[in-house]
Amino acid sequence: MIEIHSKLPAQGVTIFSIMTAMAQRLNALNLAQGFPDFAAPPALLDALSQATLAGFNQYPSGDGLLPLREQVARLFSRRDQLTPDPVTEITITPGATIGIFCVIQAIIHADDEVIIFDPSYDSYAPSIQLVGGKAIHIALNTADFSVDWNQVKDAITDKTRMVIVNTPHNPTGAIWSRQDWLNLIALIQDKNIIVLSDEVYEHLIYDHEKHLSALTFPELRDRSFVVGSFGKTFHVTGWKTGYCVASPQLMRVFRQIYQFANFCGVTPIQMALANYMQQHPEHITGLSRFYQDKRDLFISGLKDSKFNLVASKGTFFQNLDYSAIRPDLNDREMCQYLAEEHKIVAIPVSVFYQHPPEKLHLIRFCFAKKDETLIQAAKILTLV
């Protein structure tokens, strides 16, 4: 009999698969998983067709097609007034998650500690565990999902090797302020600690707030990896294309790992994105307004509901507090109740924690949906 010992024995089916399957089984409105239900820009789809017909169908450079890396550099130049070198500092990856995984593989060794802030994206902790590291979970303040910097100070030890930041933050929609970054710098500037900054929602930020990338701070420039996502930005999550930016020294160790994890991204998709970004810069400049309008439409539809909320500052997720409706249910039970009784599906926020706070009555909805979908969802929720 063959014995197999799982490296992730406690890992089951993800909540996203569970809730999507429930939505399909119940024919319920699915605002759980984070993907648009509307089409990608027609010009982007045309660019993909043109790229395939033009012969961009074989392996690209393992680091990514240079025209797309140059477009990423221009994004940082326009927004942050810094220009990473497309050749030595930018790598195109098949999705942001594998970029995050490869950063952790490249930097973390057995017994190293990595600080992550809960609620957190569910790939962080398993990626740390797989290399023998230890995830140190620090819960954000539940009132506003801000960081308790005293807790961070107390958590840093001689074994701390990395801090993972996610801004704008999934699942809460919170964003890091300049002061947050300065607080982090003060704690790690004299220590051998790397920053992994997950910035996949960098262009989805609202109410005149500004996204601050880790790379905009000189003190972090040589110790930070920034990971981004074209899928979130261009409404093509299924294209699974992202990028990683870091100093030449950090990028070298990243590429040492990445070349064996996937070797390269998809050629025609990279060419399509590069051409579209060059020809349609207005897409990104208009993205905040596009999604803020959807957030506001969803929120305005809930004004007569019994849900409480704080408007999301970023991402395409909105959390709703149901404590005035069914405080007797935990958030998993509430999501099941909404699916079965009201035919609408959400994600329980507790799944993003190692140790969820008691009486956490928050559920997450995705508002990257057609206006009619959001109007229908708000009508359903108003009757709950």
UniProtKB/TrEMBL annotation:
PANTHER family: FI04487P
Name this polypeptide is given: Aminotransferase
Keyword Transferase: yes
GO annotations of cellular component type: cytoplasm
Family note: Belongs to the class-I pyridoxal-phosphate-dependent aminotransferase family.
Species lineage: Bacteria, Pseudomonadati, Pseudomonadota, Gammaproteobacteria, Moraxellales
Keyword DNA damage: no
Cofactor: pyridoxal 5'-phosphate
Molecular function in Gene Ontology: kynurenine-oxoglutarate transaminase activity; pyridoxal phosphate binding
Domain of life (superkingdom): Bacteria
Pfam families given in the database record: Aminotran_1_2
Keyword annotations: Aminotransferase, Pyridoxal phosphate, Transferase
Annotated organism of origin: Acinetobacter silvestris
Domain Aminotransferase class I/classII large: 29-378
Gene3D superfamilies (UniProt xref): Aspartate Aminotransferase, domain 1, Type I PLP-dependent aspartate aminotransferase-like (Major domain)
